[in-house]
Amino acid sequence: MNFHVLTLFPEMVLNGVNTSITGRAIRNNKISIEAVNIRDYSNNKHNKVDDYTYGGGAGMLMQAEPVYQAYKSVADKIPENHTKRVIYVTPQGEQFTQKKAAKLSKYDDLVFLCGHYEGIDERVLEEVVTDYISIGDYVLTGGELATMVMIDAVSRLVPGVLHNEVSAETESFHKNLLEYPQYSRPEVWHDKKVPDIILSGNEKEVEKWRLNQSIKRTKERRYDLYEKYKQYEMCLDKLKEDKLNHSDMISLIDTGRAEIVLKAEGEYLLKDIQTNIYFYCSLNDKYTILQLVFDCVSKTANLQEKTLNKIKNIRKELEKIVVHGSKAKKKLEEILSNSNIKNLTYTMEEFEQYVYTQNIRLSIKGMKHPRISGNVVENAQDQLAKIQLKKYGLDICSDIEIFDGENFAKMTITAIINSQKDEKLLPIIWNKSANNAIIKETIKNANGYKSKENIIVFSLSLA
Ligand code: ADE
User: What is the pLDDT of residues 76-110, one digit of tens each?
Assistant: First the structure.
């Protein structure tokens, strides 16, 4: 991940991020940070970059040209195949959250533009900025501190920046719950004893206690988050009514990647926040959500403005939607062909869905993981599997990607299968072209079901 900061105070940013964990990540080449002084791109001998605001008004404005040239100096160096965002940090932006940090951590390059004075000439913002982000409802003297906050939060989600990668998953905000209380030595401090369960060594009980504490704490301190958490739990309960067919959606929620975008009686529309792919399920064979999203005017007539706006935003963004089974496929085809949306075309692909549980144990003892130093032993299976699950994106429709050789893929899949708790399911969906014998053999040895319904991916275009 490469961060580029366009600022009038480069040393402020560099001093801020060169220490602690971000500093270590820079030295270990996990992230890179450059700070470009916008003043270096001023076109006058006094290095002035601000001027009066047309139409009057208090204070000075940063001019378009120096900002644009500073941006160009960075953008021209970023390779074309890199994914990038250009962020203007401003109190007028959307609120920065853990979810937004997770999304941003997937890009190759992030360019931050820091404003000063009364802001920046609107024209250059229109030309270069992709995201307007605020770190909160208060006004700072400039964008540098806000940028440092975002760089810190995004960096720690970049693989290898935190040494213990699973900790980013279990901590505050994962699944909309705050983190549970934690204790270290000594066992008794100021007459306060560490709870007995924590000392019991019973992993299952400890896990249960921690979850309950997380729920209690969230309810007390952040009722807004608690309500969200309950919503996701309700969604999970519903999806589990047809567990085998909805294992992909269940796993999206379990790994904290799902956003519930719309719900109706017995219907859910989720979005995978990492890929922006939408997932839809109907448990009652009604397809109200699909009809609304793909414009059946009579249905939208008595909708609240808030819902209508949501639907409009979905339409703007939606490129791929996953549905389960032949009924949903037929229904969606029918709806799309009757849609009022102009120039709507689609292509469709069908994938077989296989679901595996852990019943057969294959050994991965002594396995060497190329990105984690040391041997991976059995009790590390869980952690490894979590990391791999993320890395391979195995929980969504994708071919299994092998970049470390077949044996590594085999061991990875084995580890993932082994790590699944009984009640959890691992959906592995792959298309027939991923004809890799060793993977198939590995999976065959595990306890698998082919779920009743195939998964169908509709790719939409509004050309
Ligand atoms: N610049 C000034 N105030 C800000 C804020 N709250 N968030 C992001 N950038 C800012």
Answer: 999 999 999 999 999 999 999 988 998 899 899 99
Most ligand 1 atoms within 8 A of CB, residue of 6, 88, 89 to mutate? 89
Report the residue among 134, 141, 144 best suited for mutation to probe ligand 1: largest number of ligand atoms under 8 A from its CB.
Answer: 134
pLDDT at 292 > cutoff 70:
yes
Within 6 Å (CB) of ligand 1, which residues are found? 89-91, 134-136, 138-140, 143, 146
Ligand 1 centroid to Cα of residue 92, in Å, is: 8
Residues 262-276 as b/e (b if ≥16 CB within 10 A, e otherwise) read beeeebbbbbbbbbe
Q: In angstroms, what is the span from residue 139 Cα to ligand 1's centroid?
A: 5
pLDDT at 343 over 70: yes
Question: Nearest-CA neighbor of 422 among 200, 169, 204, 198?
Answer: 204
Q: 26 with 18: CB under 8 angstroms?
A: yes
Q: Look at residue 73 in the predicted model and tell me its pLDDT.
A: 98
Cα(151) to centroid of ligand 1, in Å?
A: 14
225/256 Cα distance (integer angstroms): 14
pTM of the model as a whole:
0.74
Question: How many whole angstroms from 141 Cα to the centroid of ligand 1?
Answer: 8
